[in-house]
Design goal:
Layout: H1 2-21, H2 25-38, H3 46-62, H4 68-82, H5 88-108, H6 113-129, H7 131-152, H8 157-169, H9 178-194, H10 207-217
Helix pairs in contact: 2-3, 3-4, 4-5, 4-6, 5-6, 6-7, 7-8, 8-9, 8-10, 9-10
């Protein structure tokens, strides 16, 4: 009897996990629509990014067991923040929101390289608000998240994109290196060529940005 009880509890736990991880057609459709918007260049303006992030937050409120809506909400908020450099308060507020959403994603999906990439970007937003006073605090945090992401998945092209981007924009006296940046970004493009996202809603952003940065360098 004890063996049967243990087996029943194990099967129940497995069934619960499968149900929790199940993705409804409505969820897939809603996510695919918003992710497709992120793939459109016309979406890359502060207001549209905020609208997309709000939609992802609504999806997350309905599908609280899925990490991707929280992830994409954070990503869109970060992208919006980078486009609002003239409003430092808004940048910080968006970084706060992104931090909250990526924390929820991480609670559902710990030790995830894509989440580490977003955490690195959030730290970079913090630096951008006031580089002289914040660089020493958030620079190591941003770098540490990329190190973690590369350890978790050395084939993730977004890791190399963000690493190259950081090398490109960081002043040389603080560790920047444009020659090294070009090498890393070229490596990122190689990784993008080989990269195959797990699904149409899995993270796959960044290739266009890598090409843009290399074009600037050339």
């Amino acid at each position: 009897m004890k063996h049967l009880r243990t087996l029943s509890l194990t099967l129940f736990a497995l069934l619960t996990a499968l149900v929790a991880g199940a993705q409804s057609p409505q969820y897939q459709e809603a996510m695919a629509k918003q992710v497709a918007l992120l793939d459109e260049g016309s979406s890359y303006n502060p207001q549209t990014m905020l609208e997309i992030s709000n939609t992802f937050e609504r999806i997350a409120a309905t599908e609280q067991n899925q990490w991707l809506p929280y992830y994409y909400a954070a990503y869109a908020q970060v992208m919006s923040a980078f486009m609002q450099e003239n409003d430092k308060d808004k940048m910080d507020a968006l970084a706060d929101k992104a931090d909250m959403n990526i924390g929820k994603a991480e609670a559902l999906q710990p030790d995830n390289d894509e989440i580490a990439c977003i955490k690195s970007l959030i730290a970079t937003v913090r630096i951008s608000v006031d580089p002289p006073s914040r660089g020493q605090q958030y620079g190591p945090e941003s770098g540490a998240q990329l190190v973690k992401a590369k350890q978790l998945n050395p084939e993730n092209p977004r890791v190399y994109l963000l690493e190259g981007q950081a090398l490109y924009y960081t002043p040389e006296q603080f560790g920047g290196d444009k020659v090294k940046a070009k090498e890393v970004l070229e490596q990122a493009l190689q990784k993008f060529t080989a990269f195959k996202p797990a699904s149409n809603i899995a993270p796959h952003w960044g290739e266009a940005r890598a090409k843009q940065l290399l074009a600037e360098m050339n």
